[in-house]
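Why do we bother with holo predictions? Because pocket geometry can differ from the apo form. Keep that in mind while you read this record for 2-(butylsulfanyl)adenosine.
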Amino acid sequence: MSDETLRQHLEELRRAINDHNYRYHVLDEPVISDAEYDRLLAELRTIEDQHPEWITPDSPSQRAGAQPSAKFSKVRHPAPILSLNNAFSEADLRAWFERISRVDDRVRRASFVAEPKLDGLSVVLHYQDGVFVQGATRGNGEIGEDVTPNLRTLRTLPLRIPVSNKGRKPPSDLFVRGEVFFAKADFEVLNKRQAEEGGQIYQTARNTAAGTLRQLDPSITARRPLNLFAYNIVNANGSVPDTQWESLQLLRDLGFPVASESKLCQNIDEVVATYEKWKTTREGLPYEVDGMVVKINDLGLAEDLGFVGKDPRGAIAYKFPALEVATQLHNIGVNVGRTGVLTPYAMLEPVEIGGVIVRQATLHNFDFIEEKDIRIGDRVLVKRAGDVIPYVIGPVLAARTGKEKKYKPPLVCPVCSQPVEHIEGEVAWYCVNAACPEQLLRNVEHFVGVMDVVGMGEKIVEQLITEGVIKDAADLFSVTKRDLLQLEGFADKKADNLLASIEIAKTRSLPRLIGALGIRGAGEVVSNLLARKYRNLDELTKAKASDIDDIEGIGPSIAEAITDWFSQPANRNLLKKLKKAGVWPESMPPKAPSGPQPFAGLTFVVTGTLPNFSRKQAKDFIEDLGGKVTDSVSAKTSYLVVGEDAGSKLDKAKQLGVKTLDEAALKALAKK
Ligand code: IVH
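The structure, written out:
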């Protein structure tokens, strides 16, 4: 392929990847599989590796995160990035309406745009000739921090804006304002991952979003699924819409994610009605919303209305009632999780928060109690957001009487009374007694949940344990009808149904079974990776931590936790019982080698253009002979196969002392 055609192909790839990104992350309507997407991205990276001089800042490959910067440089915004005045009641909102109607009579006939007020942080995005060139935080409204490399990692942020699908060309200089935030589910997943890895639990999505966006190392930002909604055109040359409603449409047409809940209201009464509706539906939204932003639709009128201090008259934040309430902290209890993690929780004077009575709230971990200086007897602020477990924010210091008592974390497990332990580098404290009844209960519950034993709820698991029918999860598979009939609430039919469900659960796949074992760090993703490399639990039992660590996507701490789990006698015993019960799934066997395998155990990277092989042919050639082909050169690479115009990979191989081969030497090596 000539340079010219290769370059054209590169452009096409970029366009296609950006388009798929938009379809996947913004429209939620992917048209290709994840694997196909990965393939396109890998192809793009290969070309860019060969021609680093062709890499442009809007290339989708740049989302992965650039080099860490020492500190953020400052960016002057093209126009003041304003904040908003607040309204806390309908009376406040109507007072605002009256006030601005007196300033300009046209307001009485005006329409409004109601937008969800996202609880994130404001950013300003600059596009030149359709290409994202800079992004900054709001800062003090005039000067913000340049967080461009971090913003590039956001999947929903268009790196290049196409001509709008209504045929409109984007302004050559465009500044867009939007909000960066975590969707509720993404934030929960992030915290679950933190918990599984024994890391810090983040308390508020907003602060975590702010911290994530201001990471000096963009690759950290890239690993956390931040999201974006655009809501204002701050500045643009050329013609821009006259109304806020059309601005939102244009932003959407240009490929920006825009909150679909936004609504055009014909008058202030419709705004009030919309607010009342949103107040009841807000908890069902996939992201946290702390109010409604009401904007005068006519942008000319909004401008004429001017400002009061830093707040424009033409818009207001109509806040939702707080989901934070102060109440009395009576005592602190401690839960024992399935991995033995001890989690303190607050026992509260019951209080209503957003229509739900809250009696308990999590205190996250013992460090949190200490850091916030939370004392028994304190008045504490409690927050409830969506489906998230209510949590304590901190004490109300002004309400202290002096009678509050400092809390001392337990030295022994509150359930089994065995000493608790702290793992170096982790926040959590653990009960390490494998026979702790509470851990057993949580473990079996987890096992039953992942293996999907239909009809077996928490209560039945508890009955089976307290009646001594089961001593670990594997015992479930030897439960008999007689065992079940002796439990309270069991009759013939119920026992038969449950036994049938247990029988079905025996056939679950290997990744499911690995996930069900409850090994720290081995959630769904890691279990799938393990099942891809190891065919059954015998193979996994024998694996060394260094072998597991070799799997891309599994780090050393999880690899260690996995081998540690398989080395425990109690777990070995559990595996023995599972095998005996026939619960021993096999993953699909790897492709049987059809000929000699001289490349077995070797890892290759291919770069540059080879004389006779295409990239795909070279890969097939190596894999057929038992070798593995990866995309990037590391210390684990056995050989770099080099063609013409090899780029940065060759430099990297030289740096790391990785041996290189040309096509002829590769073929010669195969014959050795
Ligand atoms: S418009 C003059 N629209 O709320 C325009 N702001 O309390 C002012 N926010 O600093 C901003 N969602 O960070 C606007 N749909 C939305 C918003 C929104 C969230 C934030 C923004 C602003 C803060 C003001």
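The chain is about 35% helix and 20% strand.
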